Amino acid sequence: MGDDIVLYRTCDGRPRAVDPYCPHLGAHLGAGGTVEGQNLVCPFHRFAFAPDGTCVATPDGPPPRARLQRHTISERNGFLFAWYEPDGAPPTWEVPDTTQAGVVPTAVWSTEVHTHAQEIIENTLDYRHLPILHHVAVKELDPPATQGPFLRMRLRLGPDRPPALKQKIQADHTFLMAGLGYLRVELPLPSLGLVSYLWAMHTPTGPRRTHMLVAAACADIRKQDATGASLPRRGLHRAFARAMLRTAVSKVQQDLTIWNTKRYEPRPRLAASDEAIGLFRHWTRQFYPPP
């Protein structure tokens, strides 16, 4: 959102996120700061800050009454999520875990996009562009449904051509969106005994600037805990996750040409088959401060 934050872990492994500047004389704690035990230590004058943000030590004398502004973060499936609220209010919802425990990404790709995060996630609801831009046929299995900050839907996707292959490699994708920065796609592949997960996450870094992260994981479909897989199976999972990521990134790169040059239409002239976009636009209003 146009500002830096500093991420670190204390000696017990807990992640923390704070504003970057030391309240003493303004040094950036991410440029040479260190973690010593539970404390974050400034590189300029070695003022030490406890996990709650308070200054607890200096090299010479008692600490001043100073505090770092903390940010609420949570850890899900190997990702760290920082909560942002314009007025500093606490979180009102959490990003959900996968139903299968122990799933973490093993293949990751990222890029910078010259557009707003909402435009990226809205792309998922725009079914009409899939056969045109990506040559992907789409069938809606479960229409988009909203529940508070979450939006879910299920689509059947497959190659738009040649027709002979459609029935062989069509696959049912379950989509979960949480806010404007999180999309998870779950793809069961029963014939292979696998389930793949694909994440697309979008962090606004400034006006019309978004950092996009795409990640993939794979696990055995019939196991409740992904951490118990054998070494050969883990190798298979990693290889399949890389293949899924390559496929996803190839589609994203086609979208980038559009995203990096389009403009946002606040009152789009929607077609009859664009109901999902209208539903999405209404759902997104909750994530913006009034007016």
Helix content: 10-25%
In terms of DSSP E residues, the strand content is 25-35%
Q: In total, how many domains does the architecture comprise? A: 2
The oligomeric state is: single chain
Overall outline: globular
Distance between the termini: 18 Å
Any overview of this molecule?
By secondary structure, the chain is of the alpha+beta class. It has 2 domains: 66 residues, Rieske [2Fe-2S] iron-sulphur domain (Rieske Iron-sulfur Protein); 181 residues, Naphthalene 1,2-dioxygenase Alpha Subunit, Chain A, domain 1, CATH 3.90.380. Helix content is 19%, strand content 33%. It has 5 helices and 15 strands. Strands 9-15-14-13-12-11-10 form a 7-stranded antiparallel beta sheet. The longest helix has 29 residues. The chain is globular and about 70 Å long. The model has no long low-confidence stretch (mean pLDDT 92). Keywords: 2Fe-2S, Iron, Iron-sulfur, Lipid degradation, Lipid metabolism, Metal-binding, Oxidoreductase, Steroid metabolism. GO terms for molecular function: 2 iron, 2 sulfur cluster binding; metal ion binding; monooxygenase activity; oxidoreductase activity, acting on paired donors, with incorporation or reduction of molecular oxygen. Pfam families: KshA_C (PF19298), Rieske (PF00355). Homotrimer. The two-component system 3-ketosteroid-9-alpha-monooxygenase is composed of an oxygenase component KshA and a reductase component KshB. Its cofactor is Fe cation.
